Amino acid sequence: MAKLCNSYPPLTVVGNRVLQAETDAQKTPVAVHLYQQGTHGYGGITSPITTQPEKKGEKRPVLPKINIFPKKPDNYRWYSLFVLFCSCFLCGLVALIYSFKVDEAYKRGDIVAARSASERARKWSYFGVLCGIMDFVIMAAIWLIILYGVWRIQQ
């Protein structure tokens, strides 16, 4: 049993646990598990987990697993390719460039940049589809006007 000097309230080490002395606000000591260096494959000391001391016959609560690597944002690649070939070439090209930036940023570990590029790819793809629909409507109107003019001339 060893005492840790630079801690307030004073802490005592027992085996692989650190026991905190009782304070006025807390009547039971809190145990902090210490991890050995190099556990979990990271090569460093992980942060301690604070738990209440175990009583005989009592089960510890199961802590939820936390994923420290966030999910990769959607890159909208297929959507941008559809816009590129079927709707609006320029908007699809910009969306495709941003979809590649999503993968590059995620591989670098820059999640914020990956999410930003994902949002931009999505917005450019939506804008491309909107431009394609507007283009179709305008071209259909022009063709109807031309066909109506030809029909009027023939009669």
Q: What do you see in this structure?
A:
InterPro entries: CD225/Dispanin (IPR051423), CD225/Dispanin_fam (IPR007593). One of its GO terms (cellular component) is membrane. The chain is an alpha+beta fold and 155 residues long. It has 2 domains: 2-51, no CATH class; 77-154. It contains 3 helices and 5 strands. The chain has helices at residues 77-87, 89-108, 111-154, and strands spanning 2-4, 11-14, 17-20, 31-33, 49-51. Strands 1-2-3-4-5 form a 5-stranded antiparallel sheet, with no helix packed on it. Helix 1 runs antiparallel to helix 2. The radius of gyration is 32 Å and the shape is elongated. The protein starts with a strand and ends with a helix. Mean pLDDT is 75; it is low at 1-8 and 22-47.
For the largest beta sheet, what order do the strands appear in spatially?
Answer: 1-2-3-4-5
Q: What is the makeup of the main sheet?
A: 5 strands, antiparallel
> Helix- and strand-based class?
alpha+beta
Distance between the first and last residues' Cα = 108 Å
Number of DSSP strand runs: 5
Counted by DSSP, the helix tally is 3
Radius of gyration: 32 Å
Overall outline: elongated
Encode the helix/strand succession as letters.
EEEEEHHH
Summarize the structure.
The chain is α+β, with helices and mostly antiparallel strands and 155 residues long.
How do the helices and strands line up, and which of them pair or pack?
Blueprint: E1 2-4, E2 11-14, E3 17-20, E4 31-33, E5 49-51, H1 77-87, H2 89-108, H3 111-154
Antiparallel strand pairs: 1-2, 2-3, 3-4, 4-5
Keywords: Membrane, Transmembrane, Transmembrane helix
Organism: Geodia barretti
Family: Belongs to the CD225/Dispanin family.
